[in-house]
Amino acid sequence: MNEQTTLDRERRYLVPVARLDLPGQPDDVHLSLYEWLPQFEEWATGLALCGYSTTQGALQEGTEVTCRSCEAYRAQYQAILDGQAQAADERSARKRQAAHEADTVENGAWHTVWLESGKWRWTTSKMTTPQREYAADRVAAYSRYLAECDNDPDRGEPTGLRWWREAGR
Ligand SMILES: [Zn+2]
Question: How confident is the model over 4-56, as pLDDT tens digits?
């Protein structure tokens, strides 16, 4: 697992890990979950599936796992990880589809009004709140579509889009 760039940070993987270098530890290679820790900005392993503490870090991919307890848990863990990965794929496919459905003439038109940002506040100040919320929803939807096209799905709503909510605070 040295090819860290190919790993998906949203997912967890099963990797071989080394025993703790302490007396009394069985001389085995274990299996552990490998996951991305955003607070430390790095990948980390944890306890072995069998419950033993291990040396931090994944061993080279393909290293033979010799702990029989870890091997006995492997299929069960792998099934869970595969299920999670599939659910994540389905979620992002739904999100992508929703974003593309937002590519409508109306949304695009409102987004163009928004881009004339000097006038957005003035234009929407002439509207009732339900009307401007509707207009902002159209802008936000088109903006999500553009973010999806830019492969930046986590981009948030444009700042200041719903200025009337901020003003009310
Ligand atoms: Zn083990």
Answer: 458 888 899 999 999 999 998 899 999 999 999 999 999 999 999 999 999 99
Out of 70, 93, 116, pick the residue that ends a domain.
93
Distance between Cα 82 and ligand 1 center (Å)? 21
Q: How does pLDDT run across 64-115, given as a tens digit for each residue? A: 999 999 999 999 999 999 999 999 889 889 988 888 999 999 999 999 999 9
Range of the domain at 27: 4-93
Task: Quote the CA–CA distance of 157 and 154 in Å, as a whole number.
Answer: 10
Q: Give residue 125's identity as a one-letter amino acid code.
A: S
Please give the structure tokens belonging to residue 33: 């979950």
* Tokens read off for 128: 């009732």
CA 30–ligand 1 middle distance (angstroms): 4
* Whether residues 43 and 88 fall in one domain: yes
Task: Please indicate, yes or no, whether residues 57 and 11 belong to a single structural domain of this protein.
Answer: yes
From the CA of 122, how far away is ligand 1's center (Å)? 66
Query: Is the domain of 38 the same as that of 110?
Result: no
